[in-house]
Amino acid sequence: MSDLQEEGKNAINAPMNPSTVDMHPEDTFLEENEERTMIDPNSKEDPKFKELIKVLIDWINDVLVEERIIVKHLEEDLYDGQVLQKLLEKLADRKLNVAEVTQSEIGQKQKLQTVLEAVHDLLRPHGWTIKWNVDSIHGKNLISILHLLVALAMHFQAPTRLPEHVSVQVVVVRKREGLLQTTHVTEELTTTTEMMMGRFERDAFDTLLIMRRNKLSVVQKSLITFVNKHLNKLNLEVTELETQFADGVYLVLLMGLLEDYFVPLHNFYLTPESFDQKVHNVSFAFELMQDGGLKKPKARPEDVVNLDLKSTLRVLYNLFTKYKNVE
């Protein structure tokens, strides 16, 4: 034990590692040319890193609320595959052929293998680089777990906003000629929401933005004409798409007009005041759209409420393509 601790001490004090890193005896017990990674302790204190973890935990708990599963620590709660299995089954609406409870390490890894293969089948067609595997997840590697969860959150359009540009310093410990050497690398966990979502299939509006960007102002005018054609029936007038749809009220009313039904006022906030009330309205409008036969909107309710013009335009453009001939 004293030899291991001394070996770890030598590595920590080596010139190529100026910062102090917490290393435990088990971290120093490496075979020749084997390497291990760990997050620099300073990065763990970064507010954006902490926010990312909190947002992901809250999202998982929201998805699994009916399963009565509560995740508190990502590494400890996800490594055996049980929670990941339930999460994927809920998100993808499919049942995986795995044992419900597995206590042995072999059983846990077999479950993880099945779950991750299903994840890869979903993500690979969209260009995601797979930065995790059975051993890293089962080994409680937080970086691998975060990469996996960010990919799932983006793919299934989690109704939350992940913090952008989150990076951490990772310490790579490698054994060479009997001595431990450490180097630091920067690991990027998130970029921008737009770039991450760009890994998935483009819709008609994406194509419009890319191929005919000079036509965007024309599109906006057409959308304003379209929504006013219907909202005028309620003596409502839209001049600014970005702001007037942000609270969700006009979206809900518009869906009622397009589908020719009255939306009970107790189902939404007619005069929303808080951010949550506005998100509720937009989310409810999205549900009405899906009930009307549209796919789940690519935009997120939070983006519409936050005055993201492209998100609002995308939602309205989808309505326009379906209801443009409705009188």
TrEMBL record:
Classification via PROSITE patterns: CH (PS50021)
Record-level Gene Ontology MF annotations: actin binding
Domain Calponin-homology (CH): 50-157, 217-324
Record's GO cellular component terms: actin cytoskeleton; focal adhesion; lamellipodium; Z disc
Span list, region Disordered: 1-24
The keyword Repeat is annotated on this UniProt entry: yes
UniProt keywords, alphabetically: Actin-binding, Cell adhesion, Cytoplasm, Cytoskeleton, Repeat
UniProt xrefs under InterPro entries: CH_dom, CH_dom_sf, Parvin
UniProt xrefs under SMART domains: CH (SM00033)
Location(s) in or outside the cell: Cytoplasm, Cytoskeleton; Cytoplasm, Myofibril, Sarcomere, Z line
Name recorded for this polypeptide: Beta-parvin isoform X3
Family statement: Belongs to the parvin family.
Entry keyword Lipid biosynthesis: no
Organism: Aythya fuligula
A Gene Ontology BP annotation from the UniProt entry: actin cytoskeleton organization
